[in-house]
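Tip: read the tokens left to right.
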């Protein structure tokens, strides 16, 4: 999953726009963004946040400065536990050439101390876009952790897994109603890339446009 290997795999699969959403950290986004631009791919900064309820929420930004500021706040909200590299692996921060810049010692696998509402409020306060991740997953989804989809906070789009059956989900959870869904590979290995993707119809590939597409504004849309 090095930056250059990842971009080559994405191009092989025909993926044109990506976001890196590491667990509770955006420390590697800068390296991947640089390589993505060199390879002619569109890139957005992102992160997968684990709330106090152990719900995974994806957050995306157009503005890397807002993303970096949020990342600092998120880091300060994490439980002060050390990573166990023998069990979870080393948490390396790299540059675009795969050089290791440092090793993160705090355990990123754990939860933030922010609850769901706080996470969404802070994402939106810093110009980010919040998306519940893989809502049909059996663990760490808003449904698996709460047992239902809450009316608050209000989301414009919900993330689903590569194998999700959208029709069944809509029948089971009427609150999804006319909401948009977005599918991604959630890849942890190169071979996973392309197993899930979405076609998005936008003016330009940006998170602000994605928000409009989720609302089907002026012909924009997301198709899974």
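Filled-in amino acids:
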């Amino acid at each position: 999953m090095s930056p250059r290997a990842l971009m080559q795999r994405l191009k092989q699969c025909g993926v044109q726009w990506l976001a890196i959403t590491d667990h509770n950290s955006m420390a590697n986004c800068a390296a991947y963004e640089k390589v993505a631009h060199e390879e002619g791919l569109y890139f957005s900064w992102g992160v997968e946040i684990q709330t106090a309820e152990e719900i995974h929420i994806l957050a995306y930004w157009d503005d890397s400065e807002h993303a970096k500021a949020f990342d600092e706040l998120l880091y300060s909200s994490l439980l002060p536990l050390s990573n166990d590299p023998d069990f979870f692996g080393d948490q390396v921060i790299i540059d675009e050439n795969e050089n290791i810049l440092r090793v993160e010692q705090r355990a990123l696998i754990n939860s933030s101390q922010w609850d769901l509402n706080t996470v969404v409020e802070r994402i939106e306060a810093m110009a980010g876009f919040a998306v519940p991740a893989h809502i049909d997953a059996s663990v760490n989804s808003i449904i698996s952790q709460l047992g239902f989809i809450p009316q608050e906070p209000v989301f414009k789009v919900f993330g689903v897994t590569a194998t999700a059956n959208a029709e069944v989900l809509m029948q089971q959870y009427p609150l999804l109603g006319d909401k948009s869904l977005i599918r991604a590979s959630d890849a942890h290995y190169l071979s996973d890339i392309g197993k899930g993707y979405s076609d998005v119809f936008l003016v330009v590939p940006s998170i602000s446009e994605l928000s409009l597409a989720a609302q089907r504004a002026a012909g924009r849309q997301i198709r899974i």
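The beta strands are 17-20, 42-50, 56-61, 92-94, 100-103, 129-132, 157-160, 180-183, 199-201, 221-223. The mean pLDDT is 96.
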